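The instructor's notes for this session suggest beginning with a concrete chain rather than abstract definitions. Hand out the sequence below and ask the class to guess, before any prediction is shown, which regions might be ordered.
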Amino acid sequence: MKINGWTILFHPLFNDQWQQLLNLVKSLRSRLSQKDFIQHPQVKLFKALTVGIEEKIPNDPLASYFALRKPLDKYSRLKKMGLPNRYRLFFKVFPQQKVIIILWLGFPRKEGDKKDCYRVFAKMVKKGQFPLSLKDLIDSDNE
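After discussion, reveal the predicted structure:
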């Protein structure tokens, strides 16, 4: 998709998360009343992700409030801004090419936990799951 001049792509890891959530939301829509559907936490998460991806991030993807600190300073994340507490949406911005790749949705974080989403994301980065160059990142998507 293209928004505000930015091409937005999904890494396969996030695409899987997105599809699972989309399928769940579709299922909930057919099973719940309108009131219960709107209030369901997974529906709220899906809506917040959609707004984040289509509005918040492409509005100013290089904004300092998205920035991560070392050793993850080459990556960005969306937190708060409508996302449920403790969820983080990680992404990589390529300003010259005007491309944003949505990488991974970090599950609810618990600071200090071994499975804290920042720790998990850092391990994925260290293992080379999210290369720094656009070409390498796109090539890794096709493996």
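Then share the key points. The first helix runs from residue 12 to 31. The longest strand covers residues 99-106.
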